[in-house]
Design brief:
single chain; alpha/beta; Rossmann fold; 2 domains; six-stranded parallel sheet; four-stranded parallel sheet; 10 strands
Length: 321
């Protein structure tokens, strides 16, 4: 399915149970992992307050059966987990709307993941040619950068169709996975493989845009990183509305994995529109630096914990302080 889905063994489940028994609060990241369901169950069993940080909603797989299974899983698992949590944090407003509706109300916060702006930052224009040369990328051509796992939901089929449609563009792909772009036989595809954070930060200085034609995302961290580096972004429509205040800098495209050619045509038009009317890179980078930082997210989670009703520690439940 292209999803990282760990399945814990009995020893890991026992260790998780001990950790939850001895903690003050349980913070669960995303509902649909088996480890998350276990964390919720064991947290309730031990009477611990639970904060659920929800990253994604539905994933529009190309396969109709997979789409149906995803929707069923959200109905049977995700939504009950949202209701069971003492507090819910969404990292994307699109995910919040998808799961709770437009007029949602209740105990939830919208908090964005952070970016290490010491690494991900705007670089001098002179770095562009040097980085391209270091990674074996063409110096003069326009380049779109993709960063992510090479799996279906990231839109690799759309990327392949777009590369065929646009021989004038070159595509630098960072990552790895079951899809093998080097087998496509396209001269404008440059597979750079997995890279450490520092190298990815350097790479953001080289291309003309970040391209992420994915579905089922919350707010992909690579988009926030690219924004912090002042790199324009073309992405899936849902991701472009994850942060309403940032939508002005993101070009959202309706991605349909069952129609890669049509999706590629829409991406092509969005890229041309971006070249014709580029965003204010400096303003985008300033906004990202001010808004997407880990201390702000941590403070937000701590604030929501402080508003949980104090209870008796002797009864095995959380009491602030």
């Amino acid at each position: 399915m292209g999803l990282p889905m760990p399945i814990p063994r009995a020893r890991a489940i026992r260790a998780l149970g001990r950790a939850i028994r001895d903690c003050d609060v349980v913070i669960v990241h995303d509902a649909l992992y088996l480890t998350s369901v276990l964390g919720m169950f064991l947290g309730k069993l031990h009477g611990k307050p639970i904060v659920l940080v929800q990253h994604i909603a539905s994933i529009e797989f190309a396969n109709a059966v997979m789409r149906g299974l995803m929707r069923l899983a959200n109905c049977l698992v995700t939504k009950p987990m949202l209701h069971a949590a003492d507090r819910v944090v969404f990292i994307s407003d699109s995910v919040r709307r998808d799961l709770l509706g437009e007029s949602a109300h209740g105990n939830f916060l919208l908090l964005f993941n952070g970016v290490d702006t010491k690494i991900f930052r705007s670089r001098d224009a002179s770095a562009r040619c040097a980085v391209r040369a270091a990674f074996g990328l063409p110096i003069e051509s326009r380049i779109a950068l993709f960063v992510g796992r090479f799996v279906e939901k990231k839109g690799l089929a759309v990327l392949k169709a777009l590369a065929r449609r646009r021989p004038d563009l070159h595509f630098a792909l960072v990552g790895g996975g079951p899809v093998r772009p080097e087998m496509w036989g396209l001269s404008n595809i440059h597979v750079l493989g997995p890279q450490p954070q520092e190298k990815i930060a350097e790479l953001y200085a080289a291309p003309d845009l970040l391209l992420l034609p994915s579905v089922g995302e919350g707010f992909p961290l690579v988009i926030q990183e690219a924004m912090a580096c002042g790199l324009p972004v073309v992405c899936g429509e849902s991701s472009s509305h994850a942060d309403p205040a940032a939508a002005q800098w993101l070009r959202g495209v309706a991605i349909d994995l069952s129609d890669p050619e049509g999706s590629a045509a829409r991406c092509s038009a969005a890229i041309d529109g971006l070249f014709a009317d580029p965003p204010d890179r400096a303003a985008m980078a300033r906004y990202a630096e001010e808004t997407y930082n880990w201390p702000a997210m941590a403070r937000g989670i701590l604030r929501t914990l402080s508003r949980l009703e104090p209870v008796d520690c002797a009864a095995g439940r959380y009491q602030p302080g």
